[in-house]
Amino acid sequence: MERxxxxxxxxxxxxxxxxxxxxxxxxxxxRLDRLFCSVQNLIVVGTDLRNRGIRIHAVEQHIASNTLExxxxxxxxxxxxxxHHEFVRAATNDGLAxxxxxxxxxxxxPLLTPEQAEQxxxxxxxxxxxxxxxxxxxxxxxxxxxYITPKPAN
Length: 154
Description:
Family: Belongs to the site-specific recombinase resolvase family.
Region (Disordered): 105-126
CATH superfamily of the largest domain: Resolvase, N-terminal catalytic domain
Domain Resolvase/invertase-type recombinase catalytic: 1-103
Helix content: 40-55%
Radius of gyration: 27 Å
Protein name: Recombinase family protein
Structural class: mainly alpha
Number of domains: 2
Shape: elongated
Strand content: 5-15%
C-alpha cells in the first residue's frame, strides 16, 4: 500500500500500475482520493482511463465508471474542474491588473539597469569583447547580448 500526500502528483506505485492496464480491466479502490490527488488529476487520469476502456470502482463512495451514474459523476467533475480553472484565471488576472495600477510589474527583475546597459554599450562600441563586458558587470555573455545594440555590418 502506498502512502502519499494528497498534494503530491507523482505516486510511484500508481504510475507503475496505470501503463499496465488494458481495455476491460477495472481498478477497485476504497475512495477516489486513493487514486487521484486532485479534481484536475481525476479528470485527466479518469479521461485517459475511460478512453482506454478501463473502469474505476470506488467502493466506499459507490462510484463505478461503467454505470450511468458513474459516467455522470465524472462528467460533473469535469465541469467543476473547468469552472474552478476559470475562477483561478479570473482572480489571477484581477490581481495582475490591481498590481499594474499600483505600479508593479510581474516577472523577473532586469539584470542590468538602463544606466548599466548604456555603460555596457560604450565599451562594446569601442571594440571591447562581450566576455570582458560581462565580467565587468558580473553577469553572463547572453545577458550582455540582450542589452547591447549590435554593431552595424560593414
